[in-house]
Please model this.
Amino acid sequence: MTAALVLVFSVLILRMVLWIGDHRRERLWNHWRPLLAETACGELPSRQFPVLSQQNWLLFFHLWHHYQLNVRGEARIALQRLARRMGLHHIALRILIRSSNVREQIAAITALGWMRDVRAWELLLQRMHEKDPVLSFSSARSLVRIDPRSALRELMPLLPTRPDWSRHLVACLLLEAGPGLVARPLGEVLHNTPPAQMVVMVNYLRFADIDTATTVLLRCLPNAQDPELITACLKVAKSPQLLSFIRDRLQHPSWAVRVEAANAMSRLGDDKEIEILLPLLHDSQWWVRYRTAQAIAVLLHDDRDALEQLRVAQSDLFASDILAQVLAERTGK
Amino acid sequence: MVPSGFFFPNFIGLTCVYLFLNFVALVSILRYMRYHDIDEGESLYSGFEYPITLLAPAYNEEVTIASSIHSLLQLNYPEYEIVVINDGSKDHTLEVLIQEFAMQPIPEAYRVQLATKPIRAVYRSLRFPQLRLVDKENGGKADALNAGINCSRYPLFCGMDADSILPRDSLFRIVRPFLEDSTTVAVGGIVRIVNGCDVKSGHLLKTSLPHNLLVQFQIVEYLRAFLFGRMGWQPLNAVLIISGAFGLFRKDAVIAAGGYRHDTVGEDMELVVRLHRILSERGTPYRVHYIPDPICWTEAPEDLRTLKNQRIRWQRGLAESLWFNRGFMFSRNSGVAGWVAFPFMFLFEFLGPLIDLFGLILFISAYFLNLINLPAALSFVTLAFGTGILLSASALLIEELSYRIYRRFPDLLRLVLVLIFENFGYRQLNSYWRLVGVLRWLFKSKSSWGKMKRSARWSGSIQK
Model:
């Protein structure tokens, strides 16, 4: 009972401490918000810049980081300039060198990335190889923000060896970097990636340009046996040069491959491919039939009459049903 | 002697496990919160997000269904669809949906992957392309969900209650474990109580504690149950329950497991336990995740009768889930889930009410028969109540260190008083109801959902 009452009392004390912290944060944020908003809008600030210190920098960072995430272009640059004027980059660098607090380190890493502080390059490179996935990935992201070309050269070889990095976050990072910068290092890494990791890496080809993606796929697809790898390749296929490989996969034993082949055909083919798609309308797998029917609709440019003619011509009930569904979905009838 | 030999091991065992779960949950949540406010995960659509099907079974929901679906249509997520399943409603649910959302029948090539009651028609909305409606004969919630699964187009589906309130970014949050761990088969999240809060157009505007004491007791219970009851098991891959109010599942895994069972009132828990059983039997690597984010808000009963029916049903559902999957306990490859969590559920959650009540009767009898003296009796009572308060207080501590949903200091004070006073009557009443649930299961009396009396006093006006 004593322990329980002590804990209850602790909860109340904790709330008071947190309330004081919240109150302080709100007070500071209420003071800083207009400053940040004016800066983001390109206006002259109406009040003095606050003095950042070891005690308040983290609070400022959270608010500033929130703004960074929600603005683009000139607004972002203006906020970064503001942070530099306030000395945030000096504090962040000091924290990165000296602090053992992981949360502070991650905030510092993120801040240095936003502000493109080259002085932090070597330190961030070291942190990128840390075991902690959040610390290492944050470092990678900041490096890409500082110097995307050099960072991607360092980062790409790591990707197959870091399954602990969320693929979604890696994808966001590559999307931000842009196909012009991603293509070459990704292509080079894919050349040397072991088969076991190819599936994950091939998925990232969607962030590369068409030529790089096509070169890699032309190398992978002819010899690929693993249905998962073939599916991944088909998902990122962007060039009509791959049509012959796609056609070959329409009758693959794996239904997932057949689905992606039908999808790829709808993206890259033309109405001459419809004949080759027709047999898939009788496929045993619903998804194959559905995606094939959708592909045919796309290749016929949603021509209601042509689709209806095709539907009526089907002797197979499954084929006819799926075409009827797609007809209704895409043409409203 | 008899009470101590029987009652004490149960009490000590339960307390030790709860304290352990508390510790694990605390570490887990603190680690999760460490990066929470600098997380950039939701800032960009990467194209890697899995599309999701939301399944909204509806039975006699003509009053609330339109507003519920409107709020689902406002969720922030790159690609998702909503499948409403009208489970043979006797009111005008179907007509409301058809009119409100401009529904038109389509010749859907319906796939029967899971057996269900016959489907009458499938509709799609002319106004909202991602919305479809399945009209079927009445078969119960499990049957409706299975029909929704048959109809769904996406690899993940979200089973939910039609009146669950979801924050706009809830899909982004609940899908994260699937993006970060390819072995994920199911994800659940913390369900919060919406009573007393301000809600407008299906979105939560402001949280505050309700005045209803019964609901306040439930809030403390939910904190215990979710914050350490489930978060404690999550790092051990031993989460056996995902709330039917909101849970995200990998569709192919659920279909392979046979979908939801029709013959239980605890179809949500039973599915999760069955997934554990089947996947561990096959030696398939898998994870069931729980995230501490408050991603779903639901209405709690405000009167004793409705609460009683709910608790009896939950206990019955627990009994059925454990019984149907009893082979999972101590089975090979079942890991912590089969060797610790399942026996825990059986011994302390299923048998717990029986042992509690039996122990209490024995204790009182022993006191009046002078088998135990007053100081000993008082010591034990103090210990028992103290432990109850300790566990609730530790759940409140975790809440303070994480989301602190109830920000007003008076609300916190009220919660502190509630967590003390719930030990004097409310818990015992719950134990009794749970015992009734066990007995009804044992004697196979007819089970049903009963009728939840909804006040929805917190619900503001609906804008479209």
User: Anything to note?
Assistant: DSSP finds 14 helices and eleven strands in chain B. The interface with chain A takes residues 34-35, 37-38, 40-41, 43-44, 46-49, 104, 106-109, 111, 124, 126, 176, 179-180, 382-383, 385-387, 389-390, 393-394, 396-397, 400-401, 404, 409, 412-413, 416, 419-420 of chain B (CB under 8 Å). The radius of gyration of chain B is 22 Å. Residues 457-464 of chain B have pLDDT under 50 and may be disordered.
